[in-house]
Amino acid sequence: MSRINLVWAACCMVMMQLVTAPSxxxxxxxxxxxxxxxxxxxxxxxxxxxxxxxxxxxxxxxxTSLVRVLSRDxxxxxxxxxxxxxxxxxxxxxxxxxxxxxxPAGSPPPIxxxxxxxxxxxxxxxxxxx
Length: 130
Fold this sequence. Notes:
Blueprint: H1 3-30, E1 33-38, E2 42-44, E3 47-49, E4 52-58, E5 66-71, E6 77-87, E7 98-100, E8 111-117, E9 120-124
């Protein structure tokens, strides 16, 4: 094989990888991406989200513990945190994507867990108050 053919074949292989790699990663992550709209402020570890729509997703489809929370337009990242994998508790309806914790009067409630697929979710880890 001539040197030109080798260079051509290598360029084709690189282009093929560049074209297929992003689409494969995106398709794996789509099942763990959810747009959530809140009509009041809510809390996550280290951040308070104002009323609005946010993207909750697993940051890496190969990891089931790293969660990313972004603005609807994906321009602002509000949270990138490790979470605990949990099962949806009995009694939590399938159409309820989050569980809230208790908060003092006038304070935004904390999101305890986000349920992204049938029966599975992520529990947020909050620092203990001392």
